[in-house]
Amino acid sequence: MKTRKTLACLLLAFAAGTAAAVNAVPATPAAPAVPGEAAVKAAKHAVTAYRDDVVDTLAKLVSYNTVADKDLPVERNPQHIGFKNFLKAEAARLGLDFADYGHVVVIGLGAPDAAERVGMIAHGDVQPVDPSKWKKSPFELDRTSEPGKLLARGAEDDKGPIATALYAMKSLKDLQLPLSRRIELYVYMAEESDWEPLAAFVKTHPLPQVNITLDAEYPAVTAEKGYGTVAVTFPKGAQPAQDSPVVAQFGGGFFGSQIPEDAQATIANASPALETQIRQRAAKQTGMRYTFERKGGELEIAAKGVSAHSSKPEDGLNAISMLADALAVQAWPDTPAGALVNFLNEMVGTGYYGEKFGNIAYRDGFMGPMTFAPTVIRQKGDGPELSINIRRPQGKTAQQLSNEINAALAQWQGAHGAMQLADVKVQIGEPWIQQDAPQLPVLMKVFSYFTGVKDPKPVAVGGGTNSRLFPRAVSFGPAMPRTVYTGHSEHEFITLKQLLLNLEMYTAVLAELAQ
After folding, report:
1. 224: how many CB neighbours lie within 10 A of its CB?
2. Kind plus residue range of the DSSP H or E element containing 187
3. Which of 80, 99, 100, 204 sits 20 to 30 Å CA-CA off 88?
4. Is 270's pLDDT higher than 80?
């Protein structure tokens, strides 16, 4: 799922074309029927014939470290090149055609000149990862540490879906199912970092008339919140008294679209009584783990929470917010780190929805609430920079929300005259709703048939996917509704059961849509 600010910048350019789309909820499809006999047969064939092969292919896909490297573009990155070469070899082995367009590869089944096509959209790049947090290398498919789970970076986001899509296409080929539409799998190599090459690609290449993105949730995703960021720097101010306790350092987080698992603070001149107060407050927090270490007159505190995708802050335990809360035993002198802690406690708190940040909080009946989560603190030359990740639904304009954010910042600065925020950045992306999705009835009936869920309905998510750039696109899996999405976390996995269920459903959907 897309995360970085490139998405928001691109979507501002697309806003004019989508303004009408974000003012309504898409129509709910009719009650699901039952998939056709050919689709069910193909799905059963796929899961019977390829239950081991799909795992082996996933193991190979995750072995390539396809994290973006700012110093090594896709076309020269040996890991990306190796990944694409493997896809080319797999396509040949499975009897599928393959085309490499640089940032995008297309794997197809059916006549290349077919007038009608069905597309599947996935991405081959992955988010950064901290190997020290994994039992095995995150680029080795761990099949044994947690029985029933397949752990690796990309297992859920988005290499598991690629593997299942390949074998879904192979299964239709095996059965020689008569298809009136060509099927194409689009694998983009920079979804997590840079959408501009894909935006250029879709302008110059004819695309399938109907598309399914394999990068979010079931039953189907027809709306995505807009991605945004508030970033503020806390510069050096007046020096506090030499012997007073101060926050000398405060940091945490890994990257902007991950709920931070780790945070650290150093308290200078911390008395035993102050340490006791902090320990007692921290102990009241559910699920957090803390370590305290004395080094001379300094107290070093390390907090460990639970990482998660920042579009679902409720799935994690935000170490930055919680450590700041543990330090809320007093108002701190306005050192850069002390002002940052005060800001977090006064303006953000431990919630997810921005209720303390002036008047910014709001929600939409279909898309849900705006989420507002601190994700990373970067130590810069002029002071620490706090980045807060925003996922906003329809219901406010970007200008209104930006004005409300700036008003809240101004109010806080007015109450902290000695601390003037520096380098304030407010970037607001557009939410998106798909109003033209003729494939929804097929997706609903396939999902209902294979899961037993009655009367499924489309949903909205906080993340952004490449659905936004393809015609008539909606997301279909790979995650089940009301489950923790593990992509972007330091505990990413897909269960074997889910992988095989996805294989069945993708096969059945393709059989229905391409027949």
Report:
1. 31
2. strand 182-188
3. 204
4. yes
